[in-house]
Predict the 3D structure of the following.
Amino acid sequence: GAGVSQSPRYKVAKRGQDVALRCDPISGHVSLFWYQQALGQGPEFLTYFQNEAQLDKSGLPSDRFFAERPEGSVSTLKIQRTQQEDSAVYLCASSLIFSNEQFFGPGTRLTVL
Amino acid sequence: RKEVEQDPGPFNVPEGATVAFNCTYSNSASQSFFWYRQDCRKEPKLLMSVYSSGNEDGRFTAQLNRASQYISLLIRDSKLSDSATYLCVVIGSARQLTFGSGTQLTVLP
């Protein structure tokens, strides 16, 4: 079956622009996670959904970051008024339940100029 | 102090060598532990879960020491294809999920 897909794979934005990153999890996976990975670092947790409920958003770095999963499947991570420090790879992962193996998408590489 | 700490390396070892990585965690209530592998410019993929009793998968052995709050990964008979970054992952009681920064391994011919 298909794995986790993310789009776009690459995004270049001018500082101040809004961006929207999409994640299609594996069908039937209840849990969905967003991470931010800077160069040379491990993924940093941003937020977690169980179905459509956002149970943990403690990792979102500022109120410019917003995530949603309205129907419990596809999720969108939105970043408003992008800043240069937002440049990173944004990874989405899904799992059957929270503590199971997480399957990662290929990521979206965001570059803010 | 970071919640999950790993030696960033790099570890450069010859083919056939045995190499070990450690990872320490600060939250004593942590419940689940994993090792993930990440190839350059690729997404992380699960290598193995880590159980209290220790577990082995072929050339890979993972161990958990709750008293000292560290997990380890041992790779025997290293292959060129083992070259990657190895990430440890800790899940806490409040379902916080934390990755280490990763340990970079290069296996040399």
In short: The radius of gyration of chain A is 13 Å.
